[in-house]
Write a structure and sequence with these properties.
mainly alpha
């Protein structure tokens, strides 16, 4: 469910439970309102519980780092950071001018 949908369901349930005074035959509007508020609250709490593991902050974040590098530190994911590893070869000769 999502945070916004949960809050909308809670609001509709509260309106039905507390503001509607008309009682049609066969349907108890107060009970329907309370059920909607409980369902919305459960959806809200489940969304908060699973926020970081599904679609919450950090879902689209990628981070690359050099494995076993003692000087590498974890940076906040404001942008992409790419680590390039190059093998050390023989030193290049100075250019002839």
């Amino acid at each position: 469910m999502g945070l916004v949908i949960s809050l909308i369901v809670i609001a509709v349930g509260a309106i039905l439970a507390f503001a509607v005074t008309d009682q049609p035959s066969g349907v108890d509007i107060d009970v329907v309102g309370w059920i909607l508020m409980i369902v919305g609250l459960v959806g809200f709490l489940l969304t908060l519980a699973f926020w970081s593991s599904w679609w919450g902050p950090g879902y689209w974040r990628r981070e690359r780092y050099v494995e076993d590098d003692p000087y590498a530190r974890r940076r906040p994911a404001h942008g992409r950071r790419e680590v390039v590893e190059e093998e050390a070869g023989p030193p290049a000769a100075p250019p002839d001018y």
